[in-house]
Amino acid sequence: MTVGEEVVGRRPGRLRTLLTEPTLPVLVLATIAMVHRRYLPDILLFGGTAALVYADAGRWGFRTTSAAPAAPPRHRWATAVALLAVAAAMAALPPTSVALDIACALVGVLALRAAWRPGPALEPTRAAPVPRRWWVWPTLAVTLALVELWSFVHRAQPLVDDPDHPELSTLVEPLLESELVRTGFLWLWLLAGWWLLRRIQAWAR
Amino acid sequence: MTSYVVTVAAYLGVLGLALAVEVVAFATPRLWASFGQVVTWALRRRSTQLGLLLAWWWLGWHWVTQR
Lengths: 205, 67
Known about the structure:
The structure holds two protein chains of two kinds.
Chain A: H1 14-20, H2 23-37, H3 40-60, H4 76-91, H5 98-115, H6 136-153, H7 168-172, H8 179-203
Helix pairs in contact in A: 2-3, 4-8
Chain B: H1 3-27, H2 35-42, H3 46-64
Keywords (chain B): Membrane, Transmembrane, Transmembrane helix
Pfam families (chain B): DUF6186
InterPro entries (chain B): DUF6186
């Protein structure tokens, strides 16, 4: 093994392997946090995803891959315009309506279906190169999560928003009351999802 | 300083740092990895693919529906 690469291939023990990766522990911690917040949809969502990751690990065979990143998309502008139309239609729905919940759920189901691939057909012959200073980005994400946690534990009442200790959502949600801003946010959200799915599909080739 | 100011300053500080790192990564790609490069690399693991897909969906749903 050369410097900057890691061992890839089949690894034994589903749970043991998953516990050496960050996703399952983070999902379990998030589920515990949601139990503390007593919000059933989030408990089901995070707990369900943890179960899905565990079930899918057997199907995937614990393989990692050295596949090349996604190729430039075809119909890039047409897709961006189509996603803008979807974003505008979603933004026209009242923010707390069941219709918007259903529209968001539909986006999630379609994304999961697109990501539901059987895994790489072949074992990789070499590992993906490790990006320089990759640890900077997880460090920033953890710092943001710690600020959010600090805010949450200093609330006057655990289950009521505290203006003196705002969470990120407390600050962002008032900005999204404007339909125009909501359209822009939803468009960026859909574009980010499209970007993510194209890369997931590239790894599965 | 009030708790509100400290909290908002902390959020903005982290987001500002992230923006600075992205700019530095764009200017010196051989020394620093961009957010997109690190996410693409992390996606080599299936568990990360599903975890990031959930994170993306949940963030959009959580903020836009105010749930």
